[in-house]
Amino acid sequence: MKIATAAYPLDWLESWAQYEDKVAAWVAEAAGNGAELLVFPEYGAMELSTLEGATVAGDLEQSIHSVSEKMQDAAALHLKLAAEHGVHILGASAPVNSGLDRPVNRAELYTPEGKRDHQDKQIMTRFEREDWGIMGGGPLKIFDTALGRIGVLICYDSEFPLLGRALAETDVILVPSCTEALAGYWRVRIGAMSRALENQCVTAMASIIGANEWSEAVDMNTGTGGIFGPPDKGFPGTGVLSEGALNQPGWTYGEADLEAIAHVRADGGVLNRLHWEEQIPRVKSVTKAAVC
């Protein structure tokens, strides 16, 4: 499958039509370049809060609910575009009121056949839990699609090996991200590359970029798109299939070859995915050693 990952700047929106035109243009560009799977970033939907003015967009609590209320309309738009262009789209994630005590951080996957399903973020960053009150949502899922088996680890989730291992049956893991500083970008990127190494699969990272003085939540963002694989047979020695220029808007494209994934899992130079279980008894038997 050909994957497009976004380095996506948020805009101040004056109308819903402006948002529709923006997303339609992004999807059309990626599809026109042959992409079959499009990945938008974490919290990319926060630009929808600007439709209600500066007071709402600049207030953490009000912006959460403003965006959540618009996600059904956003889903209808993405389903329309997925069908029109014959592509799968992971839409930008958003805070969503899902019936729990507090909103969750949710990304939706849309198919050309008109189907949709979502993945909720599992583990919250300090800002999400301490300042914003976003909570972990439903369980991790494996999406069995016409393109292959797809999983999603939203930003911080990609930094936890056991979450990645839960998706070991996937071919591709998508990593939509929102990172303020260069260090945050590299934490998530290293996480994405590590999950590709451990699971001998492809990971695809998308990022928000740019400054948004109108928002306390997504005021400064650093990143780019990137597509990674295991540094092994059939893949680049660096593990980097494709990467964009830091903080430059646009799509980064790369191929996820399912045959290459199957081959490296069966006969790679190393077999990380197969040998994972050998860790368990060794971890349990760790002992303290006296240093002379």
What this model shows, in words?
The protein is of the alpha/beta class and 292 residues long. It has a single domain, classed as Carbon-nitrogen hydrolase (Nitrilase/N-carbamoyl-D-aminoacid amidohydrolase), CATH 3.60.110.10. 33% of the residues lie in helices and 23% in strands. It is built from 10 helices and 14 strands. It has helices spanning 16-32, 54-57, 60-69, 71-85, 126-132, 161-166, 182-199, 258-267, 272-275, 279-284; strands at 2-9, 37-39, 88-90, 94-96, 104-110, 116-120, 143-144, 149-152, 172-177, 202-211, 220-221, 226-228, 240-243, 250-255. Strands 1, 2, 3, 4, 5, 6, 7, 8, 9, 10, 11, 12, 13 and 14 form a 14-stranded mixed sheet that branches. The N and C termini lie far apart (56 Å).
